[in-house]
Amino acid sequence: MSVAPGWYVDPADPQTRRYWDGEGWIGAPIPVDATPPHGPPPPEPEPEPEPPTAPPVVVAPAGTSPAGGPAPSPTAGQPGPAGQPGTAPGYDPRHGPPPGWPYPTWPGRPPEPRPHGLPLAGYYERFVARLIDFGIVFLLNALVNGWFVWRFLQELSPSLKEAWRRIENQEQTTEPLPPAGEQASALVVTILLIATALWLAYEVPAMAANGQTFGKRVMRIRAVPVDADAPLGFGRALRRWNTLGLPTLLWYCCGLGLLLQLVDAVSPLFDQPLRQALHDKRAQTVVVRAPHPAPNDRAEPPGDTP
């Protein structure tokens, strides 16, 4: 996964931010609450190289070989065994090795990223929020699309009645069922167009304003851009919805649109480390837990405090 250059929370120290240039960390870290400058940090002056130190002279006692003694330890500024960094100038273990040096391996599971200092939303929270939103969109379709669905069932009724009659009588025949009415195809297209338009009208404006639909607000999660803790804006919200919502129009093609939406829905389970769905990758967004609102400070009651 490629991440766009920008200021991000340092995975080695979540209390700081560092600049990612697309390939590695550069520049000195800044506090996580500080406002990062525009663009990359100014280049740091290169440290003056230390004069090489001569290895210690080992004088072996008579009758012994110098090779039998302990191996000398790496000197300052030189790589240690297996290419691991030694005590290079400017190396700070809290912020990771200098640019160009490999990150040391974590003794256990690496810490979870915290985009903009916020924890990532879990898949369960995202799934429940999506179910709530689907329920609202379904109710909107029942109100707006109900008449078209009823007309579509009327067009299919001859085929449905004949199929049910054959099942009840246990008839085994190769004769085709009666064809659907002439308006069945047009009604399917109309139903899908209205359903897609209702979904777009429900989700895109809300996501553009604050990164939350009603379902996300209930589950206390929201979508934010990867590069900044800011509103998505209409363009990014529309790109994010396109990947998930537009395949609804392909339900007519043997359910192809539904298959694409299922793949998108389960994609966060297999994405690391930001748990991005395909529509998140399209819009460069990430879903995080929304911080709880700070409780209002209650005024002290009049009188002496105990």
TrEMBL record:
Residues 1-108, 285-306 are annotated as: Disordered. Residues 5-37 form the DUF2510 domain. GO terms for cellular component: plasma membrane. Pfam families: DUF2510, RDD. InterPro entries: DUF2510 (IPR018929), Pra-immunoreactive (IPR051791), RDD (IPR010432). Residues 37-55, 96-108 have a biased composition (Pro residues). It is found in: Cell membrane. The chain crosses the membrane at residues 131-150, 184-202, 249-270. The keyword Transmembrane applies. This is RDD family protein. The lineage of its organism: Bacteria, Bacillati, Actinomycetota, Actinomycetes, Micromonosporales. Keywords: Cell membrane, Membrane, Transmembrane, Transmembrane helix. Residues 56-90 have a biased composition (Low complexity). Residues 295-306 have a biased composition (Basic and acidic residues). It is a multi-pass membrane protein. PANTHER family: MEMBRANE PROTEIN, PROLINE-RICH ANTIGEN HOMOLOG-RELATED. Residues 121-283 form the RDD domain. The keyword DNA-binding does not apply.
